[in-house]
Structures are given as structure tokens and as C-alpha cells.
Amino acid sequence: MRNTTFETADFVLSDGLYVSPAIQMIQANALVEIIVDGITTVTVFRGTSPERMYPVADEEVIIDTADAFNITEGTPGQYISIASIVAPTKCFILS
């Protein structure tokens, strides 16, 4: 397992969303913990490369200040990225 931590400065504002750098999954599941100031919608993006990422409709979560959720049925080697309407303070991904 690998633990990746992102802070506010790591997120890039793109089309109204704060998007994390893409990380490569090393197993089929991952745990995401995200901390924000306020309420926000978090969307998971998946793709075969960091340049080709697509939002996953059924992996959208509404959180209030801090929450954790699982990403399931991934493919080892696949890339994931986390996007939020509000800039996250911290984001931990255990993959």
C-alpha cells in the first residue's frame, strides 16, 4: 500500500474544480480522506494516463469539512485524481 498526501498548493484550478495530481493505483481499491473548509462535492476522475482522465459519475461524494470514502473496482495501473469545488486543505489517498 502507498499513502499519498496532497495539500492545497498541490491542487490546480481547472474548469471550476480544484484537481489533485493523478496517482497510479497499485491495487483495485483505495481510501480517500479529504479535509475542506465548508461543504463541497468531490468527484473521482479515472484514466489510463494522467493526460486522459474522465469523471466517474457514481463516484461523487458530498462532504462537510472532513470525510473519507472508498474507491472500488479500480484497475491496478489505472490513474485516479480527486476534484473538489472547494479547495481542499488536505487530501490523503491510501492505495
The overall average pLDDT, rounded, is 92
Termini Cα gap: 5 Å
How is the quaternary structure best described?
Answer: single chain
Q: Please estimate the helix content.
A: under 10%
The run of helices and strands is EEEEEEEE
Q: Strand pairing plus helix content: what structural class?
A: mainly beta
Counting DSSP E segments of at least 2 residues, the number of strands comes to: 8
Unreliable residue stretches: none
Task: Write down the overall geometry.
Answer: globular
Largest sheet: 8 strands, antiparallel
Number of helices: 0
Strand content: over 45%
Which value, in Å, is the CA radius of gyration?
12 Å
Question: How does this structure look, described?
Answer:
With 95 residues, the chain is mainly beta. It is 0% helix and 69% strand. It has strands at 3-7, 12-14, 17-19, 23-24, 30-49, 52-71, 79-84, 88-94. Strands 1, 2, 3, 4, 5, 6, 7 and 8 form an eight-stranded antiparallel sheet that branches. Strand 5 (30-49) and strand 6 (52-71) form a beta hairpin. The model has no long low-confidence stretch (mean pLDDT 92).
In short:
The chain is an all-beta fold and 95 residues long. It has no helices and 8 strands. Strand 5 and strand 6 form a beta hairpin.
What keyword list fits this structure?
95 residues, 8-stranded antiparallel beta sheet, globular
